[in-house]
Design a protein that fits this description.
two-stranded antiparallel sheet, 4 helices, about 70% helix, mainly alpha, elongated
Amino acid sequence: MLLADAFDIITGLTITYATSVPLWLNYVLNVAFFDLNGICIYLFPVYIRYIINQKTDVMDIISDILLGVYIVMCTTSPFTKLIFYFDENLNYFRG
């Protein structure tokens, strides 16, 4: 979770100074930030369920699938503009 918080600060700074930072680096850092946030959100309920019953159930499988879909959406966002994108003037927009 600390790593996700660090990426939040780093991406905030790189978005602010988008004209000085290469566009590819902005995309890589933002994809990593969104992916890490999704993973952190995923791990908390899975950890709690594991402590309670220590078995895999249907909710774990559904959570795995949803996390996979979210990571694919975030990773392809530079091309699809679903989650975020930068326009031709290097302004940040949410998808």
